[in-house]
Amino acid sequence: MDGFFDFQNDSSWIDALKSAGHPGEAFHRIGQSKLFVSLSCNCAVSTPEIFNDRFECMCEKLKAGFDMVLIDSVPLTISPDGLAIASKVDGVILVVEAEKTRWQTARQVRESISKVGGNILGVVLNKKRYYIPESIFKYL
Fold first, then answer.
1. Cβ(51)–Cβ(84) under 8 Å?
2. Per-residue confidence at 29, pLDDT binned at 50, 70, 90?
3. Cα–Cα distance between 139 and 8 in angstroms, integer?
4. What is the secondary structure of 10-21 as a DSSP string?
5. DSSP 3-state assignment of 28?
6. End-to-end CA distance of the chain
7. Which residues pair with 39 in a beta bridge?
8. pLDDT higher for 9 or 75?
9. Residue 114 to residues 25, 42, 84, 96, 117, Cα–Cα distance (Å)
10. pLDDT score of 32
11. Which residues contact 119 (CB under 8 A, 6 or more apart)?
12. In the predicted model, what is the mean pLDDT of the chain?
């Protein structure tokens, strides 16, 4: 993400939780806008153990300071971190990749989220291709 935004430091909100630091230090304002972003983690290691009372406290502080908080987590098929987050947030939007994610996998992820008490708000189908039939394509 720091390739798009010029962060003064690479502190993530997971780093802030691990070190018991103030999570606000990990959020960076983009220009003069009302948009703030934060790296979730600077590593590829799963960290479900940090989603404890401090995480819930951080979520409450963020809710008080922002109109909307959106957390983009890694796929549940790769890391359990997203599942740990799902039970602690208001809602989950499940993202399914068209032509790649099998329906059985999507159903299993949905059931896993429900089992931990996650509230699924909806599903987004991304990378959907629209194929133009050859009979129409010749007119374009």
1. yes
2. confident
3. 52
4. --BHHHHHHTT-
5. strand
6. 38
7. 12
8. 75
9. 32, 28, 12, 17, 5
10. 79
11. 90, 91, 92
12. 76
Number of other residues whose CB lies within 10 A of the CB of residue 29 = 11
Contact 66, 38 (CB under 8 A): no
At 94, is the secondary structure helix, strand, or coil?
A: strand
Identify which of 62, 69, 58, 66 has the alpha carbon closest to the alpha carbon of residue 21: 58
Q: Which is more confidently placed, 81 or 126?
A: 126
- Per-residue confidence (pLDDT) for residue 10, from 0 to 100: 64
Q: Tokens 């979520």 sit at which residue? A: 59
Kindly tell me the number of DSSP H helices and DSSP E strands found in the chain.
Answer: 5, 4
Residue-wise pLDDT for 46-80, tens only, equals 565 667 777 777 778 777 877 777 777 778 777 77
Rounded Cα distance between 82 and 19, Å, is 21
**Domain architecture of the chain: domains with CATH:** 13-137 (3.40.50.300)
The owner of tokens 């010749």 is 138
